[in-house]
Write a structure and sequence with these properties.
alpha/beta, Aspartate Aminotransferase, domain 2, Aspartate Aminotransferase, domain 1, 2 domains, 7-stranded mixed beta sheet, 3-stranded antiparallel beta sheet, 12 strands, 43% helix, globular
Length: 375
């Protein structure tokens, strides 16, 4: 298989999966001892190491199964009225947009969509599009840090600052950011930030985090209310007591996050910085090969992408169903790559990812196959 779709679900190293299996064996060997004595120490250690990696205070982080759960936790905790507006963009991830629509239908709040142009020439076009739609009624802005469909890195720090100056809180869907780009949540300054650890950080599936600014933590509750609500403990915040235990589950994916950080950071002499730079350069080379083969133009500047890039399909393929192209690439040619529709021209996009296991030859193969499909 030619696997060029790391961005969808990541890929967990064998060493990390073996570590997870040892933890699972530890649970099953004596579950009462594990959940009574060992679980919380392991969770706190994982949280501490993750906080250092993403530039956050340990008190401001909790684990959640995925970034969508984090976004939903915030949206379901806040109160809105028919006088309120919730701002997002036309690049927002479908699952989180569905959550917005659900909240709007329950509360009467209005979802306002800022139209970010695509193709795009600069990050300032994103800022201008978002700020233009802010009104006196805007309560919250839900924004991607790195968009799923178009692979754009939003200037999230500038957006958060501009919105805060206008009295608007920011909820960031950072599903793709941890491990793809350098993160400093303190510096970004968002009110809420949810990010996945299973994608570019390469932890097992089911590991993600939710960051909530200290002054907002008393308002945010997990989707499942459990023992933490009336716990008499005072050594931890109610925020962490509630999120840390929502019922019996397999917490080992969270506990593997430090192992994933250490393993991926050990693969190149320059550690994570070199890994991110290498992936960025590789995806740029892959994008160039595809654009040349398909005779199309890049859709954004290279500075606006990290380790994912989208390329427009030629007009000769525009009328084909995107899933039929995806399935043909996989079934006939052994290529796993994301093919997606877009709202306007270009109507069809192919999204490539670059991780350390990928090679330039794989993108050359994809370019050759796609060129053949156009004929």
């Amino acid at each position: 298989m030619t696997f060029l779709n790391h961005g969808s679900f990541g890929a967990c190293p064998k060493q990390v999966l073996e570590f997870q299996q040892r933890l699972r064996s530890q649970i099953e060997h004596e579950p009462l001892r594990f959940f009574g004595r060992e679980w919380e120490l392991l969770l706190d250690d994982a949280r501490s190491k993750l906080a250092a990696f993403v530039g956050a205070d340990v008190q401001d982080l909790v684990f959640v199964p995925n970034a969508t759960t984090g976004v939903n936790s915030v949206l379901r905790s806040l109160t809105f009225s028919p006088e309120d507006e919730i701002l997002t963009t036309n690049h927002e991830y479908n699952a989180c947009r569905n959550a917005l629509d659900f909240i709007a239908s329950r509360t009467g709040a209005r979802v306002v969509v800022a139209k970010v142009p695509f193709p795009i020439d600069s990050p300032q076009q994103i800022v201008a599009a978002v700020i233009e739609r802010v009104s006196a009624k805007t309560r919250l802005a839900l924004l991607d840090h790195i968009t799923s469909q178009t692979g754009l890195i939003f200037p999230i720090q500038e957006l958060a600052k501009e919105l805060q100056q206008r009295g608007v809180d920011t909820l960031v869907d950072g599903a793709h950011a941890p491990g793809m780009i350098s993160l400093d949540l303190r510096e970004i300054g968002a009110t809420y930030y949810s990010g996945n650890c299973h994608k570019w950080l390469c932890a097992p599936k089911g590991a993600a985090f939710l960051y909530v600014r200290r002054d907002k933590q008393s308002e945010i509750r997990p989707l499942t209310i459990s023992h933490g609500t009336n716990s008499p403990r005072t050594d931890k915040s109610r925020f962490q007591l509630e999120f840390d235990w929502t019922g019996t589950d397999d917490p080992t994916a969270y506990m593997c996050v430090p192992e994933a950080i250490a393993f991926m950071g050990s693969l190149l002499p320059g550690g994570w910085k070199e890994l991110r730079q290498q992936n960025h350069q590789l995806v740029l080379q892959g994008r160039r090969l595809l654009c040349e083969a398909l005779e199309v133009q890049p859709l954004c500047p290279k500075e606006m992408i990290g380790s994912m890039a989208v390329v427009p399909m030629p007009t000769t393929l525009e009328n084909r169903d995107f899933m039929s192209i995806h399935d043909e690439l996989f079934d006939k040619f052994g290529i796993q790559v994301q093919v997606m529709p877009w709202q306007e021209k270009p109507r069809l996009l192919v999204r490539i990812s670059a991780q350390i296991y990928n090679t330039l030859e794989q993108y050359e193969y994809l370019a050759k196959v796609l060129k053949g499909l156009c004929c």
